[in-house]
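Entry 14. Ran structure prediction on the chain below.
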Amino acid sequence: MRAVQKISDDWVFHDHFVPELIAELWDGEAVSLPHNAVKLPFNYFDEKCYQHAFIYQKKLPWQTAFEGKEVVLRFDAAMADAVVCLNGKQVAAHKDGYTPFEARLTDLLVNGDNLITVKIDGSENPEIPPFGGMIDYLTYAGIYRDVWLEIRSSVSIAKMKVETGNVLEAAKSASVRCWFDNPQDLPLEGVVVATLKDGEGSAIVAVSAPLDGASALLRFDNLTGLALWDIDNPVLYEISVELTTTSGTDQISSKFGFRTAEFTPDGFLLNGKPLKLMGLNRHQSFPYVGYAMGRSAQEQDAELVKRVLKCNVVRTSHYPQSTYFLDHCDRIGLLVFEEIPGWQHIGGPAWKAESVENVRRMIERDWNHPSIIIWGVRINESQDDHDFYTETNRLARELDPTRQTGGVRYIDESELLEDVYTMNDFSQGSEELPGNNRPHVALRNQREVTGLSKLVPYLVTEFNGHMYPTKRTDQEQRQAEHVSRHLRVLDAMHGDPNVSGCIGWCMFDYNTHQEFGSGDRICYHGVMDMFREPKFAAYAYISQCDPSDEVVLKPVTYWARGERNIGGVLPLIILTNCDEIEFRYGNQLSKRAGPDRQNYPHLPHPPIVFDERHFRPEEMGLWGSSWQDGTLVGYINGEAVKAVQMSSAPVPTTLQVEADQTSLNAMERDTVRVIARVLDQTGNVLPYLEGSMEVDVAGPAILLGPNIVPIRGGIVGFWLQANGEPGDIDIGVYWPGLGGERIRVVSVGL
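Output, structure tokens:
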């Protein structure tokens, strides 16, 4: 039976490359995986610092289990140009920084210590997608995902693909195709058994077939009593495949779900029912460590998109992302648009050939995920290239005829070779461009964009972003406009039955190249900051959820008379799913208002806006006169359900420290996000508080980043990583204004 070991520990890292390191172990920095090749500051760094070659080394002692077996190293990903050597001999090379690859060790292993050497070149090689032009994100460098040692039988299962049929009928079907790995070219004799299991791991039915070739197809028919996978009830099943030959046995398994997903000219259908897709784009980066975050951080990002931001779809911009992230999307019912690496630039023949292979790698890795509803097979925002995109589409359809293809574009009347016209619509804000005489518009008409006479499946894959970058610490008036721009697009989407949905740019701020962003190597395009702390615009999405899920009441204000232009807080946007809001100013004045359906007629939950229609200027006091506390009370069906207080004279009173979870898996090298907020007497963050906080960690964990961290808008964020040992982790945060606060997280050895 296959044995799998994660090999995260005891790697030796060298921040340079010399040929002697290929065959000789040198002293270097002891590191664990996942690992970012360069320790980065938060901002203002030169991205060229990681654009060169690095070396990772590890001793692999001989194991008796290796005898007569196939021994393979599997890399989940490494950025970007990777070469793997064993005992001085090259055994693998991989140029794609986002997909897995294997290194076969079998023939070169010796009975003693073996030396694994991995050369990683972080240079932006123009022969490797996405490189060759300028890209609006960073790729970092290093072995940033997990590495596994696998001991297999001489004949093993290389991959498996699950397809479902008759999904919407009472009696469903499923098939599983397996491909076999036989590097020694042994006779293929044996039997294959596939077992269908429920979500608890209990067997439902098994089928078998003789092994008579390089692949096998097994079918399950007349499956009754099975549930559909849906965003509200993401029921997963499992197929386990066991191969038995004269060489031994091998077994792999995969989760999947019964569901249909279809983009039509009349919108998107999930399991035959219309669903408006509302979501955000996600980069896989984190402060200080780039891409190098493991399972728990990936899962937490999926949780944030689904549970916190209340979205139903995420786009993996602009590359395949961690399987930990996708696995969790499967579990929680978050739909996924996945695409190949690239940003605007199309290279030469070798580059295109590598990109076509990226299509293959992406689909073969991820074809069993029910959360994935469409393959992105164009280079994001590139020009048309008929032959190139004919081939990427052909291959995608050959590998997976069950899913539609899309190709993210930003040029009008781009050739449609895919099944879905996927468009980045940045028309909102284009009226500000010099020479543009077009009036303000949230979304353009589909026919204007496509140039086609007929309606086609249509999805907006980006909007806002660079058209209106906004920091969490920006002046309130800018933040209110940032909110309004997201609301306008979401409203337009809900009002157009021919738009399948809109995916905003983007989930959170991210580091980028010097040609983009705000000069400090950060693009402030997110509805969250880099530490995943929400900006006001995040609540444009959150407030669209049903009140039974969460009652939302978020005023777009810091409640300061002198923060906005001219002064005051009107118009005051309140992002809410309440029926009505009561606005109390001090103890003297109370006004009520309902949703602004005049300006947002299509949103499920329009904002409630208080403005000159509700208040005369003198009612809330003129500049220089007394400023009073504010209170907002939300009502549903006439009953008060939530209240927010705002202090007219805020001062720091509380240091709040919170962790996303209370326990970590020590062996998984789990990470936990910690947020420290300075709150006023009503529990609101002090939005312009500056300074720094000191972080100290006692116990089996590593602080990712510096221990003296700047306060950004009253908030400090950081991540801790378990160091592999169990025990209590004591986390302290100290700020001179309020002293210290401590919390505890437990690292559990499993």
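The radius of gyration is 27 Å. Will compare against last week's run tomorrow.
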